[in-house]
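Write out this protein's structure.
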Amino acid sequence: MRRSFERALAIAAFGIGGCAEMPPDYIAVKPGDAAQRELQGRRFDGIGEKELLDASVAVLQDLGFTVDITSVELGFVQGAKEREAKAPDQTLVLLIIAALAASQGSGAGISQEQMRQDQTISVLLTVRPVREGDARSHIVLVTFHRHLRQPFVRTAGPLRDPVLYQSFFELLSKALFLEAHKL
């Protein structure tokens, strides 16, 4: 019984995997990847992992994120926040479509719901020791992703703005300083 279940599971995995196509350069290292990784990570010395995670969660909450998952054992935090996103070119396209529909006499206008452009900004944060057994030096890696939901388009991708990452790490450093000095 167990073998037949394992076979069925393997066949299903191959079948599902065969349906999805990955671009040929999906796992290729791109020229800017090292610089982006450098931007997303910082080293913190003289602080424990739990304190670093607590301060990170506090900073994310101050920035408006709702923290969904926190695992001290894994050194992992996940959160998200909802925002409205307006893109002038998208609004223009919708207005042109509405004008064309009206000129054809279809009377089909574009509703406010169709004009909405919502986005979710998600954050993934990990804390790991610099070296095994070193409980006072850690590396914090954080990535921000944007999931944009527009009337006709859904896109997602990482946010690569250096100011975003620099601002986050500045706030985290300030929070750690205030906590260390009990201010």
